[in-house]
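Why does residue order matter? Because the sequence determines the fold. Keep that principle in mind as you read this record.
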Amino acid sequence: MSYLNDKKILVTGGTGLIGYELVSLLLKKNPNKIRVVSLDKNIFDNDKVEFINSDLRYLDICEKCCNDIDVVFNLMGVTGSPAMTFEKPASFMVPNLLVSINMLEAARRKKVKRFLYTSTYGVYGKVDVMRENEMWTKYPSEADKYAGWAKRMGELQVEAYIKEFKWNEISIVRPANVYGPRANFDPKNSMVVASLIKRAMDGQNPLIVWGDGSAIRDFIHCRDVAQGMIETIEKEVYEPLNLGSGTGTSIKDLVSIIIKNLKNKPEVIFDKSKPSGDKLRILDTSKAKSFSIYPKISLEQGLKETIEWYNNNKEAIKTRTYNAFKEND
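Structure:
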């Protein structure tokens, strides 16, 4: 029987890219209830889901959300493109710090049993292969500076709570480049997969891609991340864990797979006058494999699903608000 059976579970950021998949998978575990906190609208039609629209930057609200909860999956945070993080670094970094600090403290005060903190591959420095035990040996790369340090502080808080409060049942996961349905398709703020799909499907022809296409990245489908989070809790993994494919895909190959799945195939131009980014960024997933945690969705399968989802939801996406926190709040 799953540890999560009959448990009272809190999922913050539960309507987002990973959160929706996580809640959907958790519902199959026969939980007592799942409390979902989001600034979006409730998208779950299930009597076991209790939805709360709330801002988790504030400790008192975090405490209310943690009342009578056994397990917390903390996914809430601001995500965005590298350009967004440099244009609005405070709006990006500070909410992430506040949410992580207040959620863990609230969970401790309310005596939550198990807690999962969602970090990011951005905590790593400029290295080709990112290994969990080498994270603190280098600073986050310039492209990941604000997200990387915000998430590092969240990880450091976890370490501090383990040492001082002897709360040992806290997990940390570091996902790679996550893609899939319900990604942020905002043209000003989307990550590489969503940006390419949107521009290609919205008729940009030629499709301009920055760099020469040689940069290699690690991509993982949101459902694989959600499943990895569940297994991390169930298998009692209380050490930082990379969640990725463990293999690399060049941006050129990524574009090729996307174009192959489109009816109207645009011409692709790689703008070599623009930066390509770091040459290689791959997560070492050997630790996850040691716990029998593996991604199951191939990149081609996952991209096809994402393209189909975007095609079916383009109109609804146009009216969606992507800012996780109010402007100038």
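Residues 215 and 279 are 5 Å apart (CA to CA).
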